[in-house]
Write a structure and sequence with these properties.
- The chain has helices at about 20-25, 45-55, 75-90, 110-120, 135-145, 165-175, 190-200, 215-220, 235-245; strands at about 10-15, 30-35, 60-65, 95-100, 125, 150-155, 180-185, 205, 210, 230.
- It is α/β, with parallel strands linked by helices and about 250 residues long.
- The chain has a single domain, classed as Copper homeostasis (CutC) domain (TIM Barrel).
- An eight-stranded parallel beta barrel has the order 1-2-3-4-5-6-7-8, surrounded by six helices. Strands 9-10 form a two-stranded antiparallel sheet.
- Strand 7, helix 7 and strand 8 (about 205) form a beta-alpha-beta unit.
- The two termini are about 25 Å apart.
- The mean pLDDT is about 95.
Length: about 250
């Protein structure tokens, strides 16, 4: 399989705030994934956040649509909530969505997915890392390709993409360019070049965050009003992009 130049590798960075989005743009990211509550894997961002990202950051942005923490098996009421959130965030300017749900049998929830394909009206969709819970990944990939889903976020069936390189390469070979294989899970400057080289992926997803202290933090924690929050780390994000682009 021919390898693409690292110049053409898409770099998607997670943004939890407008500041994160501006930083991602500064270091040369290709696009953003917008979400909240990264500590539980990411939840739906607010309309205000998406609106301000669109206003201030000149990068494509796909908004995570996930209404709660926990599993990815949703009731009909939750599915309808998720659909409404997706429509609202597209209306607010999100250029695409990040979605995903499974059934009790561990297969893709087609009711959930087909609703998004209808409401998104051709906007890009990424199927998120719940994909890695699906045992028969080839059949699942066939479903996504058949429905013209744009990308699948995956660690190659592992927590960290660097450990799933063999599966990622299999996925690249099997999909043969019909869907973007977006490698995510612990992607950092120190492992991304090897990941791209060994798997052949042409898109990576990362959130190199740092914990940020804030004024009155101790007082806030003492009465249960706040905890340290996370934000993209400038040096880590810049190093990641430079490593992908072959600048270091």
């Amino acid at each position: 399989m021919a390898k693409s130049s690292n110049r053409s590798v898409q770099i998607e960075l997670i943004a939890l705030s407008v500041s994160d989005g501006l930083l991602a743009q500064q270091v040369g990211a290709s696009r953003l994934e917008l979400c909240s509550a990264i500590e539980c894997g990411g939840l739906t961002p607010s309309i205000g956040f998406v609106t301000q990202i669109v206003k201030n950051v000149n990068l494509p942005c796909r908004a995570m649509i996930r209404c709660r923490a926990g599993d990815f098996i949703y009731t009909q009421e939750e599915v309808e909530t998720i659909w409404q959130d997706g429509v609202a965030l597209l209306d607010a300017g999100a250029t695409g969505l990040v979605v995903g749900a499974i059934n009790q049998d561990g297969k893709i929830d087609l009711h959930h997915l087909d609703g998004f394909l209808h409401f998104a009206s051709g906007k890009p969709l990424t199927f998120h890392r719940v994909f890695d819970l699906i045992e028969d990944w080839k059949s699942a990939l066939d479903v996504l390709i058949e429905r013209k889903v744009d990308a699948v976020l995956t660690g190659g069936g592992t927590r960290f993409a660097a450990e799933g390189k063999e599966r990622l390469k299999e996925m690249m070979d099997y999909s043969n360019g019909r869907i973007e294989i977006l490698a995510g899970g612990g992607v950092r400057a120190e492992n991304v070049k090897e990941l791209i080289r060994d798997s052949g992926v042409t898109a990576v997803h990362a959130g190199p965050f740092a914990t940020v202290d804030f004024p009155l933090q101790q007082q806030s924690e003492n009465i249960g009003l706040g905890t340290p929050y996370r934000a993209l780390d400038l040096d880590s994000a810049r190093s990641l992009v430079s490593a992908v682009r072959g600048e270091k």
